[in-house]
Design goal:
alpha+beta; Calcium-transporting ATPase, cytoplasmic transduction domain A; Rossmann fold; Calcium-transporting ATPase, cytoplasmic domain N; 4 domains; eight-stranded mixed sheet; 30 strands; 46% helix; P-type calcium transporter activity; magnesium; ATP hydrolysis activity
Length: 1012
């Protein structure tokens, strides 16, 4: 039922055809269940969609073809032919296992919602007298439900009647409100009120903190507010990270190139299909060149890239964990590096979420229409009972001020909260309401009776000063808060000898306007002085200054009734009478409190500004408080006009769609927001191609966390939020996000290095196979060797490149454009040049053995190119054993050159443009270790049986290794020359060309600081 909160109770009951006293009839229950469905929905089955990646599909096809071709092998090659497809299948299985595991983790957010589903509910129905307990899933719209303290609300309910003094509900899981909410049964006239303002509604999954009530169910199952959140989470498609998008694009381009090159190799060699080496069979020749095409496909695919990326990201997550950022989704590590907008909650992230009293005042003197105040400031911004009371920046002893002694007494007694020292966490925590805990902490700091706390343990210290005050006065009863009088009070009697009503007092705290209106006097020292209109205006003016200034303090007035009516005459069951007992009060003082910003947040905001990252505060708090905090921490400057930069959820809703989109582009503060607002803000930001990090801690935040590129949950948040997020902040600190962004940028820079390193290797392998096929030379490399190089010998140095030291100015640059290609322009030429050299070197090494090696056949290049025509009858090959062309030495030479060049390339990748003379390899000791390990593994397959048989290689002699080194080492000189050109000449030329060619187009595509 829509807008039930705006209708009178009788209208809601009439809509469902139900009475409060009787409830629904069995027939009505049956009809409503058919109409609205059960109060719950089965969890969606996890659909595993693996093998969708294009690279994986190409590998799968290569494995399938390799299995088929293995059946055609004869002799000793029959066994080794199956090694290649088996290895490929093992890679695919490993990738699939990881994929399934990640999918299950991603869906755990929906599973976690079960935590908030109540099991039972108490209903009134016509088929049975009184209240009956039934399963919550059997409750239907129209049911009359009773709730009491400790209950979990079983459905969305419109309150009919509150059967206690007050009804308080903890709905933080849904709305994010840090304190329990006082409810009532009156209609809310605004049909578009946000959930925080629907004070006459109880929401499914929330908890009754105090009181008792009866209401009518207006929504169940997926139609409840928490059910809508579940639907949003299911409908939210996870966004691919920028790196995943680039790799997808790379895969598509690579697949096209592979297809064209493979077809070209096969077609070019059609004339060789009937060569004698194939036994004169055209079909066997076609199969042979088809095998070469498959080998080419294997060579072109960087099989080790997924494993290396995963390893690098995993190492990055370990470093982040040490900084209190726990990453749940590995790809999000890289995404952090191009974050351009951070949407942060206020409470607990930008602020401490520990309400603290920071100012207070009492009356100094009153002379006619003139008065002066004693104003104090209080240090300490946590719940720790540590801090000083300052007057004019100087510490004072509170016991010397009679007004402060009385103020502390009111704070201690008009209070149901306390402090608790958590020995495992080593911190002080609140027990009860945040506002009252702040007063408890203030009393401890004031220590008005000079209690010796030096020898107390931290557990004893938590409430030591409050305990002293509570020993002097006994709390007899509490007049609970009500929204009409906006105050609460306690009736206290002295605990001394005689213990009678003489000396009884009523202590009152509440909203300043309401309390001061009922005050007739003020306390000056120990005297009771009449409160005149000018004095009242002076007090209210000071309170308004505190409430509307840069701090936007939450103010509480403290008062006392020195001669209250006798407790026995009070009608405590009638809350409407409480206002009469709280009359003729004496104003004692006022305290101003706030949830203070974290100390390190301001510097982190400034760091974000330098890094081109826009910070947006999104909070459920009111707009005034939100803007004030924004000014304090630097999101807004002190005198900045916030028009068009700060919106409430209501103001945002009233804008047309295009204006909403523009608001998201410009705004830095959203207040009084609901879950749907967060999701829409993320959508609009994504329409500007912003990479958005969104924080949250409640169930209500889960859809937005899942929709954003980076969902960040608080360590103190709900299980649902943590499950939907990519990252969890164990310390709930905004500054940790900034540290994670810095780490993400460093990781991306290193990933670019090892991705380019691996791709240049693959280019070399493709050139090698393509050259041998075009020139008609014997195979220089076979698929199983290519797999070994791509996965193992290249994988270790590539992983070690992830440990390259970050640039010192990494947070002084704008976020990179997520569409920026991994390899473009000059870099593409550089790595193509290196790849071509790798290909020429490997082919050259194999050819050298045939032509010049002392242990080789020393054939001519013409004979080598026509080796497929080698027969005993062919005069060109007179005196040559045709089996020599199947020797393992040339492939071993080619493989050794490939591995050695790749180790040299790893050294070249320590820096993109800096010379090895400026950035020597020992800056990354892990890289040197990885190179040693890779070479050791290469020696293993050459010299340790049965590895040579599996990889079809043979041990090399020392002279042959000398040749390998001579062919390999020049790649360092080649890359040094290319780096020199890049540093000293090409940057200016390319910049000029870009400006000339791109012109206005470039200006449109460049990211502005506002866009990130």
């Amino acid at each position: 039922m829509e807008a039930a909160h705006s209708l009178p109770v009788l209208d809601v009951l009439r809509r469902f055809g139900v009475s409060e006293s009787c409830g629904l009839s069995p027939e009505q229950v049956r009809r409503n269940r058919e109409k609205y469905g059960p109060n719950g929905k089965s969890l969606w089955e996890l659909v595993l969609e693996q093998f969708e990646d294009l690279l994986v599909r190409i590998l799968l096809m290569a494995a399938f073809l390799s299995f088929i071709l293995a059946w055609f092998e004869e002799g000793e090659e029959t066994t080794t032919a199956f090694v290649e497809p088996i290895v490929i299948i093992m890679i695919l299985i490993a990738n699939a296992v990881v994929g399934v595991w990640q999918e299950r983790n991603a869906e755990s957010a929906i599973e976690a919602l079960k935590e908030y589903e109540p099991e039972m509910g108490k209903v009134i129905r016509a088929d049975r007298s009184g209240v009956q307990r039934i399963r919550a899933r059997d409750i239907v719209p129209g049911d009359i439900v009773e709730v009491a303290v400790g209950d979990k609300v079983p459905a969305d309910i419109r309150i009919i009647e509150i059967r206690s003094t007050t009804l308080r509900v903890d709905q933080s899981i849904l709305t994010g409100e840090s304190v329990s909410v006082i409810k009532h049964a009156d209609p809310i006239p605004d049909p578009r009120a946000v959930n925080q303002d629907k004070k006459n509604m109880l929401f499914s999954g929330t908890n009754i903190a105090a009181g008792k009530a009866v209401g009518v169910v207006i929504a169940t199952g997926v139609y409840t507010e928490i059910g809508k959140i579940r639907n949003q989470m299911v409908e939210t498609e996870p966004e691919k990270t920028p790196l995943q998008q680039k790799l997808d694009e790379f895969s598509q381009q690579l697949s096209k190139v592979i297809f064209l090159v493979c077809i070209a190799v096969w077609v070019i060699n059609v004339s060789h299909f009937s060569d004698p080496v194939h036994g004169g069979s055209w079909f066997r020749g076609a199969i042979y060149y088809f095998k070469i095409s498959v080998a080419l496909a294997v060579a072109a695919i960087p099989e080790g890239l997924p494993a290396v990326i995963t390893t690098c990201l995993a190492l990055g997550t370990r470093r982040m964990a040490k900084k209190n950022a726990i990453v749940r989704s590995l790809p999000s590590v890289e995404t952090l590096g191009c974050t351009s907008v951070i949407c942060s909650d206020k409470t607990g992230t930008l602020t401490t979420n520990q309400m603290s009293v920071c100012r207070m005042f009492i009356m100094e003197k009153v002379e006619g229409a003139q008065c002066s105040l004693h104003e104090f400031s209080i240090t300490g911004s946590t719940y720790a009972p540590e801090g000083q009371i300052l007057k004019d920046e100087q510490p004072v002893r509170c016991g010397q001020y009679d007004g402060l002694v009385e103020l502390a007494t009111i704070c201690a007694l008009c209070n149901d909260s306390s402090l608790d020292y958590n020995e495992s966490k080593k911190v002080y925590e609140k027990v009860g309401e945040a506002t009252e805990t702040a007063l408890t902490c203030l009393v401890e700091k004031m220590n008005v009776f000079n209690t010796d706390t030096s020898k107390l343990s931290k557990v004893e210290r938590a409430n030591a000063c409050n305990s002293v005050i509570k020993q002097l006065m006994r709390k007899e009863c509490t007049l609970e808060f009500s929204r009409d009088r906006k105050s609460m009070s306690v009736y206290c009697t002295p605990t001394g000898p005689g213990h009678n009503s003489a000396g009884s007092k009523m202590f009152v705290k509440g909203a300043p306007e309401s309390v001061i209106e009922r005050c007739s006097h003020v306390r000056v020292g120990t005297a009771r002085v009449p409160l005149t209109t000018p004095v009242r205006e002076k007090i209210l003016s000071r309170i308004r200054d505190w409430g509307m200034g840069i701090d936007t303090l939450r103010c509480l007035a403290l008062a006392t009734h020195d001669a209250p009516v006798r407790r026995e005459t009070m009608q405590l069951h009638d809350s409407a009478a409480f206002v009469h007992y709280e009359n003729n009060l004496t104003f004692v003082g006022c305290v101003g409190m706030l949830d203070p910003p974290r100390k390190e947040v301001t510097s982190s905001i400034e760091m974000c500004r330098k890094a081109g990252i826009r910070v947006i505060m999104i909070t459920g708090d009111n707009k005034g408080t939100a803007v004030a905090i924004c000014r304090r921490i630097g999101i807004f400057s002190e005198n900045e006009d916030v028009a068009g930069k700060a919106y409430t959820g209501r103001e945002f809703d009233e804008l047309p769609p295009e204006a909403q989109r523009q608001a998201c582009r410009d705004a830095r503060c959203f207040a009084r927001v609901e879950p749907t607002h967060k999701s829409r803000i993320v959508e609009y930001l994504q329409s500007f191609h912003e990479i958005t990090a969104m924080t949250g801690d409640g169930v209500n935040d889960a859809p937005a966390l899942k929709k954003a590129e980076i969902g960040i949950a608080m360590g103190s948040g709900t299980a649902v939020a943590k499950s939907a997020a990519e990252m969890v902040l164990s310390d709930d600190n905004f500054s940790t996000i900034v540290s994670a962004v810095e780490e993400g940028r460093a990781i991306y820079n290193n990933m670019k290095q090892f991705i380019r390193y691996l791709i240049s290797s693959n280019v070399g392998e493709v050139v090698c196979i393509f050259l041998t096929a075009i020139l008609g030379l014997p195979e220089a490399l076979i698929p199983v060797q290519l797999l070994w190089v791509n996965l193992v010998t290249d994988g270790l140095p590539a992983t070690a490149l992830g440990f390259n030291p970050p640039d010192l100015d990494i947070m002084d640059k704008l976020p990179r454009n997520p569409k920026e290609p991994l390899i473009s322009g000059w870099l593409f030429f550089r790595y193509l040049a290196i790849g071509v050299y790798v290909g020429l070197a490997t082919v050259g090494a194999a050819t050298w053995w045939f032509l010049y090696d002392a242990e080789g056949p020393q054939v001519s290049f013409h004979q080598l190119r026509n080796f497929m025509r080698c027969t005993e009858d062919n005069p060109i090959f007179e005196g040559i054993d045709c089996e020599i062309f199947e020797s393992r030495y040339p492939t071993t030479m080619a493989l050794s050159v490939l591995v050695t060049i790749e180790m040299c390339n790893a050294l070249n990748s320590v820096s993109e443009n800096q010379s090895l003379l400026r950035m020597p390899p020992w800056l990354n000791i892990w890289l040197l270790g990885a190179i040693v390990m890779s070479m050791a593994l290469h020696f293993l397959i050459l010299y340790v049986k049965p590895m040579p048989l599996i990889f079809q290689v043979t041990p090399l002699s020392w002279p042959q290794w000398v040749v390998v080194m001579k062919i390999s080492l020049p790649v360092i000189l080649l890359d040094e020359g290319l780096k020199y050109l890049s540093r000293n000449h090409l940057d200016g030329i390319l910049r000029t060309l870009r400006h000339t060619w791109s012109g206005e187009h470039q200006l449109k595509t460049c990211r502005t600081p506002e866009q990130g």
